[in-house]
């Protein structure tokens, strides 16, 4: 996959990355671009069809991927998914991307389980499988909770919690993993369908200096940089990718 002039981000081809929620949106783009920079990708999603479509896309481009159907809120499914992923080789990288949409009808406690509990569950089970040198992870947080307030209450609460957990890992588990997070702003994925044309969407996009949403592809490159050996001294940061939205409010 190392076409001449292509950025490889320092990954060693054939190493394995798990991307959760990789059957759509930011996770799918991250999986596709991870394969393009040489990684073997374990494409996790609760939606088997979405995961399979991502894997097809990667394989058609000549990359290596396997689809793993798993709900990251469930211990047994996470363990089984880790075992399936480990068959591809040492899993050196993890992208905790899956999380509920803010439009989901969840009560606060359920949302904590789905939004931050799942990231801790996957990370803890992955790290428990033993040390892998140079291991790194990226958690997908949001501008919500970290830089702005938003609704419903649980959404910014889980996203701020993700950053708190990321800082914990960076401070106390640096022996095992380098941990960072990204804070996407508005990103054009399935869950945002119709938003840009809505009254609220037009108002908010008008206040973003770049006057548009991010593409999932743009967010994925921030994730992959933080994950990569090129970011070997970056630990515990939140990378905001919001087109300048929050600095202008
Ligand atoms: N789209 C945005 O504007 C935006 C902004 C900031 C942060 N984010 C965050 O980015 C991440 C990805 O969002 P997206 O917009 O790409 O969403 P998306 O809806 O396009 O994709 C999310 C994928 O995650 C999967 N998923 C959800 N819950 C899961 C679970 N419990 N187990 C396994 N898979 C699960 C879904 O099936 C889906 O394929 C989320 O954490 C989201 O909060 C998105």
Automatic annotation (TrEMBL):
Q: Which GO terms describe its molecular function?
A: oxidoreductase activity, acting on the CH-OH group of donors, NAD or NADP as acceptor
User: Superkingdom of the source?
Assistant: Bacteria
Family annotation (CDD domains): SDR_c
- What Pfam families is this protein classified in? adh_short_C2
Q: Which GO terms describe its biological process?
A: fatty acid elongation
Family, according to the entry, reads as follows: Belongs to the short-chain dehydrogenases/reductases (SDR) family.
Indicate what this protein is called per its UniProt record: SDR family oxidoreductase
Where does this protein come from, organism-wise?
Answer: Trebonia kvetii
